[in-house]
TrEMBL record:
Organism expressing this protein natively: Flavobacterium piscinae
Segments of skewed composition (Polar residues): 352-362
Pfam families per record: PSP1
Region (Disordered): 352-388
Annotated protein name in UniProt: PSP1 C-terminal domain-containing protein
NCBIfam families: RicT_YaaT_fam
Biased composition (Basic residues): 367-380
Length: 388
């Protein structure tokens, strides 16, 4: 779904070239939270007008809807000046046509509402120059803003700064555990930066979505690439999937539980419907046995006697159901060993160096340098003896 400039080529040895547009790609396929316009090649019925609202993207994937009251001919990738309070903002058109109506319905925005802001015009070169100049100020301003917040000893973190397109206002995004009194902070910011200041608090998940990053899976964060809604995630999802309750492994870059814990939860819940409860106990003549572990993929359960917890016995779920049915009829089995399966250990695979490559640890031991500074011993000159 990327543009043609991002494709691989023979000049780069098959590596992605990259369009080098840094978020201003004409097709908008390289940007975060991109929506593919699958209605782009379809013509409207005769007599029907094009939907008069467009979707515009601003910094870090922030998108808003605007009404095209001037009937401008807009396509994806156009830079437009939009209504803001005060002044105007500059953004990139990311979606036009009927698909905008679908997105507005998904976001809960009324397409016929009079509160939808307007698109003023296509951005002129002067608008683009001002927009580019104020974007260069954001990073050094963020460093200075954090220093001021630390000096005032405020329990907050300035995560990002976004300038309005005309440079008349700067929005400071911050995260905090508790309520923060930043009245003195705004005065310090206004005096230091000489612009209108707006503070906006965001959650930790929203902060990670704005800043982006690479997750433990090796891919970009879902919240910054395609995930638009943040559903609640709790440790119950990890328990159903029999994951280790290790906060360091279950937490994402935002410090909260990973959103991907919900992706396969429904599949695990459907698979567990065929399993007996984890609290299932089996009554035998040797004593009561309790469930210790479940394997959803292989359909196995591990049981152990109450007086010998360390010794586990593997039983298939079909046999567990039969044993439980007999226990309900007040019948006890002789022992778990009669139904236990023998787990054959998988053979250990030894990988040999078939290609004849050198060892990866060949650089671990530094090579000894040859000492060429040693003085060579001069050859002894034997004088001719005249007597001989």
């Amino acid at each position: 779904m990327a543009c043609t400039n991002c494709s691989t080529g023979s000049k780069t040895g098959g590596a992605p070239q990259g369009c080098q547009n840094k978020g201003t790609c004409g097709t908008d396929s390289c940007n975060k939270l991109t929506v593919f316009d699958w209605l782009a090649n379809m013509s409207l019925p005769s007599g029907q007008e094009v939907f008069d609202c467009v979707e515009v993207r601003f910094k870090n994937g922030r998108k808003e809807f605007f009404r095209n009251t001037e009937k401008l001919t807009l396509i994806i990738g156009d830079i437009v000046a939009t209504e803001a309070s005060p002044g105007h903002d500059v953004g990139i058109v990311t979606l036009v046509g009927e698909l905008v109506r679908v997105q507005m319905k998904k976001k809960g925005v009324n397409p016929t509402s009079a509160d939808v802001p307007k698109v003023y015009r296509k951005a002129s070169q002067k608008d683009i120059d001002i927009w580019a100049d104020v974007q260069k100020k954001e990073e050094p301003m963020k460093v200075k803003a954090r220093e001021i917040a630390i000096q005032l000893q405020l329990q907050m973190k300035i995560s990002d700064i976004e300038f309005q397109g005309d440079g008349s206002k700067a929005t400071f995004y911050y995260t905090a555990e508790d309520r923060v009194d930043f009245r003195q902070l705004i005065k310090e910011y206004a005096q230091a930066f000489k612009t209108r200041i707006e503070m906006k608090q965001v959650g930790f998940r929203q902060e990670a979505a704005r800043l982006g990053g690479i997750g433990s899976c090796g891919r970009e964060l879902c919240c910054s690439t395609w995930l638009t809604d943040f559903r609640s995630v709790n440790t119950t999802a990890a328990r159903y999937q029999q994951l280790s309750l290790n906060p360091q492994k279950l937490a994402g870059q935002c410090g909260k539980l990973k959103c991907c814990l919900n992706y396969e939860l429904d599949t695990y819940m459907d698979a567990l419907k065929d399993f007996p409860d984890f609290d299932t106990k089996i009554e035998t003549e040797r004593g009561i046995a309790y469930c210790q572990k479940q394997d959803i993929f292989k359909g196995l359960m591990w049981f152990a006697y109450a007086d010998n917890i360390a010794n586990w016995h593997v039983i298939h779920i079909d046999q567990v159901k039969e044993i439980v049915a007999e226990n309900k009829q007040r019948k006890r089995i002789s022992s778990l060993e009669d139904f236990a399966l023998e787990i054959v250990a998988e053979p250990k695979q030894d990988f040999n160096n078939a290609m004849g490559q050198e060892s990866l640890t060949r650089f671990d031991q530094p090579k000894r340098k040859k000492n060429n500074n040693k003085k060579r011993r001069p050859n002894k000159i034997v004088k001719n003896d005249p007597k001989k």
